[in-house]
Amino acid sequence: MCGIVGLFAKDKRLEPQLGALLSDMLITMSDRGPDSAGVAVYGHGHDGRAKITLQNGDPDADLDALVAALRHATGETIAATRRGTHAVLELGAGAVNAARRILIDRFAEWRVMSTGGAIEIYKEVGLPARVVEAFDVPGMTGTHGIGHTRMATESAVTTHGAHPFSTGADECLVHNGSLSNHNNIRRDLARKGLTFETENDSEVAAAYLTDRMNDGADLGQALECALRDLDGFFTFVVGTRDGFGVLRDPIACKPAVMAETDRFVAFGSEYRALVDLPGIEGARVWEPEPATVYFWRH
Amino acid sequence: MSQARPKVRTEPVQSATFSKAVNAEIRRAAETGIYDIRGGGSKRRVPHFDDLLFLGASISRYPLEGYREKCATNVTLGTRFAKTPIELAIPITIAGMSFGALSAQAKEALGRGATIAGTSTTTGDGGMTEEERGHSKTLVYQYLPSRYGMNPDDLRRADAIEVVVGQGAKPGGGGMLLGQKITDRVAEMRDLPKGIDQRSACRHPDWTGPDDLEIKILELREITGWEKPIYIKVGGARPYFDTALAVKAGADVVVLDGMQGGTAATQDVFIEHVGQPTLACIRPAVRALQELGMHRKVQLVVSGGIRTGADVAKALALGADAVSIGTAAMVALGDNDPRYEDEYRALGTTAGAYDDWHEGQDPAGISTQDAELAARLDPVLGGRRLANYLGVMTLEAQTIARACGKSHVHNLEPEDLCALTIEAAAMARVPLAGTDWIPGQTPI
Amino acid sequence: MLDLAQTPLRDINAALQAQARGGNRTRWEIANPRGSHALAVGLDAPIEVTIRGSTGYYCGGMNKQATVRIAGSAGPGVAENMMSGRVIVDGDASQYAGATGRGGLLVVNGNAASRCGISMKGIDIVVRGNIGHSSAFMAQKGNLVVLGDAGEGLGDSIYEARLFVRGTVSSLGADCTEKEMRPEHLALLDRLLKDAGMDDARPDQFRRYGSARTLYNFNIDNASAY
């Protein structure tokens, strides 16, 4: 139950403003979700390098010690940037899995928000205005981004219960609605070895898409499968390293508005979220059809 | 010489699984091809307020003197946002029952009785009638998925607005009023053709989910100048989450209806197999309010199987601010009265079991639109009977509260209770009688 | 001119609603709606309100007598439960346009999204463009006129509302069927099109849809439609 925003820049000149535009869109949706807020921002990244976004509730946690331990264990050069309760590590793409194992084994208080060549995820409890400020989202550059403000239905109001959910490299998902068969899907996926951090239905949806893509589907195909296997009410907005997708369930009564111009594709739970986008007056504005996969790629 | 011995046979045994009633229902389904539709609430025995007892006072606690030392019963509903909260003399309200399901006389009687007793009555899925508005000092206007008869004038002349998301008899379900009851007047109020089966939707037509509900509440408040309390009524399905979400969406009052709560007409399978007993719903809802810092700020009204002052006192002790009655109010008016036994038998049933309210042949003249039958209920007399009954329940609740040393019924607490059964102890989260054991409660 | 950038929603609605108790201003303009919800709701006076921009949920909700023009697009539930008067949307309307409306005229000059006219109870709705899926679901009374195309499941479980579509219908819902266009329907349609200012459409270009009335009283042989 929530407010969703998404922005996919077609025009490179919009990229420096992506964080600022996305932040304003998300703040406009605050009424739809008072519990927590989060964003996924896709930057350009560097060839052969990958990013790990971490979160630690303790503001005095020792990031340097963690970086030193990882450097020692992997032999990698690691750049670390701290933003509020989060930190982004940049390291060789080949070392991500090893680093992740070390984090889980030895630094459990640092929790992995996302991994990938381009994605960074920032999320916390509280209203969007406070959350985007805490991470300086308005200052971020990116090719595309997704934001979410949450009204929790059945799972806990925690940092980890906030959206976006990322269950695979450079993948993220946000959700407005309520799934009705996520517990069985979660059990099926857990049997296949996927792990879950929360009781949230939306995390199951994210993991479901990851699982499909691990089996060789592209995002569009994975979303088609979701229509068959996921029951309940949903509007999903999903991101991959170079793609941006939208899917509504066949009943499609959770709100969704899209706008497209030569410069961008944008998503909002309500039109209000889109009103300040540059050139919105001339945009094609429409509501995505039920059970229809929408997908854009760079 | 051998003598023939009588043959010894095993006593015939009726299967408990395939009981006579079950077999009869299978035959009925095979014969007619339609599921059983009926009125009322769950008839099966479920853990209920009967399974709780008050401890009373003795040496460690001091009781109040009956009839002399005051025990207040007043309750204010809608103190959170509404400019004009509802002030009631007693913590017992009359639940929503539609004109259509009930006769105009019955609706009038409910209004009269509630007004004498100093409490509110509620419209239902069929719009507001002059009879009930005119005779109800305090009238709650239901805002339902069907929106039959919905209009801004009635919205403004209501004293509170109840957004109905669900009811205990059928959480997640809509309704079905058979054609016999869609008379000219009912049809006109609902903008439906006369005589057809009326199918009520299970979701509201223009919002889904708590985020949209918040905006719907904004609209209702803007139309009514932020004056009237907005209640949200939910069926006892997931009371912890639903209460929390109603609060987040901006409710002034949460109305929580357990599975014993009645309905005018729905599938028997829905009534008996969907939803939780009232007893099991209260504590999770109160916990949600407490965690949000909203207990007693957003009021909780509990309904579903409330019959006596003891039930009222127990619901309040578990954390409710008020209770609501529907079926009991109908019985007070004369529903299922044995004096109509011959007529009940002619309908193939018996007094106390009559539940085909949707068919409109109610001998007591309450759940009907038949003019002749409806004329059997004198609204003035009916109102008096209801007021008497509400008065008795209030006196009973006060008696118990005084015995527990309370000068207001709202000061009853879960710690004033014990449970007779393990099930009730677990659901109400009070200790099993004679022990300090609350099943499922983690030791502190 | 009322400006939502400067005046709170509650004050704007209060000023418009106060016209019901006597007022001498018949023309109002509202600037900077920026997708705000519950704007110009509960009006009850023959005034004209023009909103300069796009609105959020439930604009013109429960309107009586007033003419509300949205010079932009409308969010979900525009003119929901309208009693009388007019609501005109220059752009598109989101889902639930005219939901449960009991009277008056709703004109959408662009497209209307899903569930247009859901549970309508006497309102007239005229849409220049297309309408989305599940429109006129359980529609009880009134007229829905669509100059463009209709989405999936048009008129599912419909009662006595009349549906007129000029373009294609993706699919009809349960118990909705095409019906004969008789002279009285052509005359009705002519009046509705003129009222809505749709001068370029002719009644004979439309097809009429309505209830087959097979679900009006339960019949076991129709159980699969439930």
Automatic annotation (TrEMBL), chain A:
GO molecular function per UniProt: transferase activity
SUPFAM superfamilies on file: N-terminal nucleophile aminohydrolases (Ntn hydrolases)
Presence of the UniProt keyword Transferase in the record: yes
Domain Glutamine amidotransferase type-2: from-to ranges: 2-298
Keywords carried by this UniProt record: Glutamine amidotransferase, Transferase
Record-given protein name: Glutamine amidotransferase
Automatic annotation (TrEMBL), chain B:
GO BP: any one term: glutamate biosynthetic process
InterPro entries from the UniProt entry: Aldolase_TIM, GltB, GltB_archl_type, Glu_synthdom
Keywords linked to the UniProt accession: Oxidoreductase
UniProt KW Oxidoreductase keyword: yes
GO terms of molecular function: glutamate synthase activity
Pfam families: Glu_synthase
Family stated for the protein in its record: Belongs to the glutamate synthase family.
Name the UniProt record assigns to this protein: FMN-binding glutamate synthase family protein
Organism: Roseitalea porphyridii
Automatic annotation (TrEMBL), chain C:
InterPro entries recorded: Glu_synth_asu_C_sf, Glu_synth_lsu_3
Gene Ontology MF: a single term: oxidoreductase activity
PANTHER family: TUNGSTEN FORMYLMETHANOFURAN DEHYDROGENASE, SUBUNIT C (FWDC), TUNGSTEN-CONTAINING FORMYLMETHANOFURAN DEHYDROGENASE 2 SUBUNIT C
Protein name as it appears in the record: Protein GlxC
Phylogenetic classification of the source organism: Bacteria, Pseudomonadati, Pseudomonadota, Alphaproteobacteria, Hyphomicrobiales
